[in-house]
Amino acid sequence: MGVIDDNLARAGLVIPTPAAPVANYVPAVLTGSLLVVSGQLCFQDGKLDPAHCGKLGEDVSIENGQAAARLCAVNLLAQAKAALDGDLDRVKRVVRLGGFINSAPDFNALPQVMNGASDLMVAAFGDAGRHARTTVGVAQLPMDCAVEVEAMFEVVR
User: Fold this and answer.
1) What is the average pLDDT score of the chain?
2) Quick check: helix, strand or coil at residue 80?
3) Which of 42, 137, 28, 7 is nearest to 85 (CA)?
4) Which of 9, 28, 77, 148 sits a CA distance of 20 to 30 A from 20?
């Protein structure tokens, strides 16, 4: 186990088997020193928890939204680990996270929800986990998920 896996284990996290794509895309693209990971949903053990489905500001609390964002981040790391031949220590820096929050029109706590993903990256990678970020409220996400998160990592080839 590497340093990042140790950090995750200390946080009580296990990286799952990555989900297969459900449409015409690839889960990750490695080009030069960048690894771009497609948007990940808030699956846990291959299932959606009803607490992580619906709209923030209507059906989903901020706390459940943060937990959903954290699950998305765990799934991002699963895809990154698979793309990097099982070695998350090849991640030099988390460059960017993009968050999509399924939200009611007047919901404005988007940044607090997205912190669920951002906080996990910092817990895993330390200062190298601090990243640029975009957070957008959207009208709908696949399977009525509360959150979807995509990522870009700088990696050591």
Assistant:
1) 96
2) helix
3) 28
4) 9
Residue 94 lies in a domain: yes
What is the rounded distance in angstroms from the CA atom of residue 114 to the CA atom of residue 20?
24
Q: Rounded distance, CA 28 to CA 152, Å? A: 9
| Residue 126, domain member (yes or no) | yes
Structural domain for 56, as ranges: 3-14+41-136+151-155
Number of domains within the chain: 1
CATH of residue 119's domain is 3.30.1330.40
The model's pTM is: 0.97
- 93 vs 136: CA distance, rounded Å: 23
Mean of pLDDT values over 15-34: 95
